[in-house]
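ok trying this again, last paste got cut off
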Amino acid sequence: MNIKLSIILRLLLLVFMASVQSAGGANAGKVLDEVHRTGVIHAPYPDIWPPAAVLDANGQISGFDVEVLKEITKRLGVKLDYVKNTDGSVITWKEQTSGEWQGKYDVVVGGMAPTAERAFHLSFPVIYRYGMGVLAVNTSNTEIKTPADASRRKIGVLKSSIHAKYLKREDFGILNSPPIVYKIDDPIIVEFEHEEEAFDALSRNDGTVDAILDTAPVTIELIKSGRPFKVIGLPLYRTPVCVAILPGDDELATVLKQTVDGMRNDGTLSKLALKWYEYDMTAP
């Protein structure tokens, strides 16, 4: 996609979203009114994906995303109710990103990036953290000392992922992303159907890949688990991760933005990030 076409599509999206919000004005405040009436805010039970969502030995969930949402509800003066499907199964990511919530829940705080596609049926009132892509090599590798050293090397990524887009220098399709600086030239991209295959290839150090590209939290957890990896350089790029709600409730959007901004300004978000990720990925 060339730059001119990308700009045109973004402008069309902004016009569309403005019309959607205008059409939904009659329902402004409906969800927030119900939350205040019941004293409860509903959210989908999270997939267990440490450190964003962690299940302890007692069956209790915690983690960064969980604690962020709990703090939001605490500041709103309401209780948090995590919901599942009627058969006890966890609500799928596909449903959460589709906007077809069917009144089961009010908000999602679950690592959702504000893509242009999702913005057609969801609203993203506030960023609460940033995803960070990092390059990792085998600990025995002494040739790749900076991201630029990985130029023209074999880099493993999950097929069709944002990491693959970075290496191909394709538009991420994510709204409000910070400017991207490309540090790797002409990489040999090795795409895997499952990211575990990329991890295994780098662990074997058999020449299948010279490096891998994945998110910072995943890479750090892999290193903690004993994988022979080391991170090279600073994060290659950052992408926003947002609170998600349905369009049409400007009052709820405003309250959530004010609440999360307050958590950022008083240091709460940073404190939680350092607790669960050991680095701060909440600052703009």
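PB: full thing came through this time. The beta strands are 40-44, 54-55, 61-62, 79-83, 108-112, 123-138, 154-158, 188-192, 211-215, 229-245.
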